Amino acid sequence: MQTRFVVIPAMPQEKEQFPRRIGVSTALGAGYDLYDTDGKTRLALNYPTRAEAEYNCASRNSQEGAVGSCLVGHG
User: Is residue 19 assigned to a domain?
Assistant: First the structure.
């Protein structure tokens, strides 16, 4: 059974200041968000640590009755 909510890296809050051709992107996302697989939407809650995001994800999934882990790419 697929879990409804999963943890994903957060998107940058600001746009890049420089064009990509100058070098490596400096606007990296800080923190983690949740993704609703049922509604196909990102929940931009911006948790500072992965542990906080996984805890909230597990709480939301248990409320939905889903069984599984919030880890993306593990398993």
Answer: no
DSSP state of 12: P
* Token couple for 20: 């990509």
Domain residues for the domain of 44 are 1-12+29-75
Task: Quick: pLDDT tens for 2-48.
Answer: 789 999 998 876 665 555 565 555 445 689 999 999 999 999 889 99
CA distances (Å), origin 24, targets 11, 20, 30, 35, 40: 16, 7, 16, 26, 29
Does residue 24 lie in a domain region?
A: no
